[in-house]
Design a protein that fits this description.
heterodimer, A: alpha/beta, Rossmann fold, six-stranded mixed sheet, B: mainly alpha, two-stranded antiparallel sheet
Chain lengths: 266, 373
């Protein structure tokens, strides 16, 4: 069992008296795919936003690579190696695909104001080096060569999801938070995306720990090493996919009182 | 390598990163440089002054384009920073005891240009600080505050009174000197402006295609996503304000060479609006658009001025008693600017640069008519 890379301890989050998360604790270990599932409004995305720093939990602590990140701003968490994709697409619509992914390299570029103005020598070399990395590692991996010079806002939804993953990967993160990467995709795109998630998790070059929020149970149960279930902001189960699938609390949360099959949407 | 960019493929990343990537573009740029170089021998001095006014508007509008077009921070007080640049330059030339060798060697003016840029940048950052907290509409109000605080209050009431000079700071003619060249004729002012605009546009273009510019565009398009990708939003907004202020300061210091004096009425709020209008006409978020917009506005103003002048002299020739009517249409110039902005927003919201882009694409694909990507 490998080391714990991300840990949430007793996280509470509320919006004006509505408890979004209450007393949620979990541990994510290096190299695994950890899924968070739950019915709509269970607080999955809230949990993601807390980890990422867009929300500040009222109580509790978040520990990333042994450092307490509870009070850190999102960009400092990104600098520590925490990247994410969004449930609703949050790309930079006016930029090309290549520029979107290049922005993910932001923290790895070192040029300042004056050297950017001159764009000679070091800055130019650096840009070309990172361009090579993006083109040959990320764009090639995610198979978006054909659209890389297009303006992102115009592209179809499935591709935009993939570009979000590419941008998150460009950060070269240790942990990537995938917030519903499969929502709204067709069957072929779902299979592609699932393959990419496995690739980035297992490939020697990437070995990214994934925290996955997803409604597609077939994919979640196939991909995940461990699954946590939330319901109304409370953690009701955690364990391997098969354990969670058989947990009566989880079945109740998803299907109400009726004990029925709990299967994939497909 | 063909003449037209259609069907051109690059074999290395370095080739793809070049400014002028094909021989056709290189030819176009060399042609443009030749036109700019021989312009003073072709046109008379009134059109030369139009040319350097265009260049002044480009320099001043560069910061507005950066803030509004690239960083998404709407500013309506940019004339304040140009004023800071102009006054810094004038006062340093007049009040600093320059050593004789710097005056003789023509170093004083270049040094003041840089200082004007730095101080205007700092002043701009001061008024950019609210951008850490407020967005959009509210930021417009704080940038307008920059205008009202700087020009009518600080400059008119305090700075302009230094040395008991009243309002105008006149510069002795020999002080505007770069190296061995004394800038005293329209032709020299024109060449000086072309060189400055060239340097500033190149710097701006390079910033936009590097780390800085991408961070700015990311903040414009989606600030939350930018922050999660590791962009320190507050710092990058302030850098944007600083760079925009720097360009404004350079613009103010440059315009001193054309005016030979500064006075608060050169930096009225109208100019802040004019530069925003220029980028609306030319195209928001495009450096070319800024150039097109500045050229369009200045040339249209000039043509209207000529039209008004000739109309009024024709009127006087017909009947000298009707001279009072001239005053009735002398302000058509400003009104036409408002009309131009309205028409552009309705019929061409992407500005002149978008039209130019469409035209270029058409010819790149010619004779095939399909709309390529």
């Amino acid at each position: 069992m490998s080391e714990v890379i991300l840990e949430a301890k007793n996280v509470f989050l509320s919006f004006r008296g509505v408890a979004a998360l209450s007393n949620v604790s979990f541990e994510v270990r290096r190299g695994e795919i950890f899924s968070i599932i739950g019915p709509n409004g269970a607080g999955k995305t809230c949990m993601m936003n807390c980890i990422n720093g867009l929300y500040n939990p009222k109580q509790g602590r978040l520990i990333f690579k042994g450092t307490d990140i509870t009070k850190m701003s999102p960009h400092r968490r990104a600098a520590m190696g925490l990247s994410r994709t969004f449930q609703k697409i949050e790309l930079f619509g006016g930029m090309t695909v290549l520029d979107n992914i290049r922005l993910g390299r932001h923290l790895h570029l070192t040029s300042g104001v004056l050297s950017s103005c001159i764009y000679w020598g070091k800055t130019s070399r650096e840009e070309i080096e990172h361009r090579r990395f993006i083109e040959e590692e990320i764009i090639d991996l995610l198979e978006i060569e054909a659209v890389r010079n297009e303006v992102t806002g115009m592209l179809p939804y499935g591709l935009q999801k993939r570009i979000e993953l590419a941008r998150a990967l460009a950060l070269k993160p240790d942990v990537i938070l995938l917030d519903e990467p499969l929502a709204g995709l067709n069957l072929e795109e779902v299979e592609d995306m699932a393959r990419f998630i496995i690739d980035i998790n297992e490939d020697k070059q990437w070995q990214v720990t994934c925290v996955l929020v997803e409604h597609d149970m077939g994919v979640v149960m196939d991909l995940s090493d461990r699954v946590m279930t939330l319901n109304f902001g409370v953690k009701i189960a955690e364990g391997t996919p098969s354990e969670v699938q058989e947990n009566p609390e989880v079945i109740k949360a998803y299907l109400g009182e009726v004990e029925d099959l709990y299967v994939s949407r497909r | 390598m063909s003449y037209l960019p259609c069907g051109t493929y690059f074999e290395s990343y370095a080739d793809d990163h070049k400014w002028w990537r094909t021989s056709f573009i290189q030819g176009k740029m060399i042609f443009m440089l030749v036109v700019l170089a021989i312009l003073p021998y072709v046109v008379d001095s009134q059109w030369l002054s139009v040319a350097y006014t265009i260049n002044y508007y480009i320099l001043a509008g560069l910061g507005v384009q950066l803030l509004i077009g690239y960083c998404g921070q709407i500013t309506l007080g940019h004339a304040a920073f140009v004023a800071v640049g102009g006054y810094t330059c004038a006062m340093m030339l007049l009040l600093v005891p320059w050593p004789q060798f710097m005056v003789d060697g023509g170093l004083a003016y270049p040094v003041t240009i840089v200082c004007a840029g730095l101080l205007a940048g700092a002043w701009s950052v001061l008024f950019g600080l609210p951008s850490a907290r407020v967005k959009g509409f509210y930021l417009i109000m704080t940038t307008m505050a920059a205008q009202w605080i700087t020009v009518p209050l600080v400059i008119t009431q305090y700075v302009a009174q230094i040395g008991g000079r009243g309002q105008a700071f006149a510069i002795p003619p020999d002080m505007i000197k770069i190296g061995p060249w004394v800038i005293d004729t329209d032709t020299k002012i024109y060449y000086f402006s072309v060189v400055l605009v060239g340097i500033c546009l190149l710097a701006m273009g390079n910033m936009v295609r590097s780390k800085l510019g991408r961070a700015w565009i990311a903040i414009r398009d989606n600030d939350i996503a930018a922050e999660t990708m590791g962009v320190n939003i507050v710092v990058y907004k302030l850098i944007a304000f600083w760079v925009a202020g720097f360009f404004a300061g350079v613009a103010g210091a440059f315009y001193l060479s054309a005016l030979f004096f500064v006075s608060p009425e050169h930096y009225e709020w109208f100019f802040s609006l004019l530069w925003v209008g220029i980028i609306l006409i030319g195209g928001v978020g495009s450096i070319q658009g800024l150039v097109f917009g500045a050229a369009f506005v200045v040339i249209v103003f000039k043509l209207l001025e000529i039209a008004v002048m000739s109309a009024s002299s024709a009127l006087m020739a017909i009947n000298p008693e009707l001279g009072w009517m001239t005053t009735k249409f002398i302000f058509f110039k400003e009104a036409s600017f408002g009309l131009a902005i309205i028409l552009f927003l309705i019929y061409e919201p992407n500005g002149l640069s978008y039209r130019y882009w469409q035209l270029k694409n058409y010819f790149n694909l010619w004779p095939f008519s399909y709309t390529g990507k």
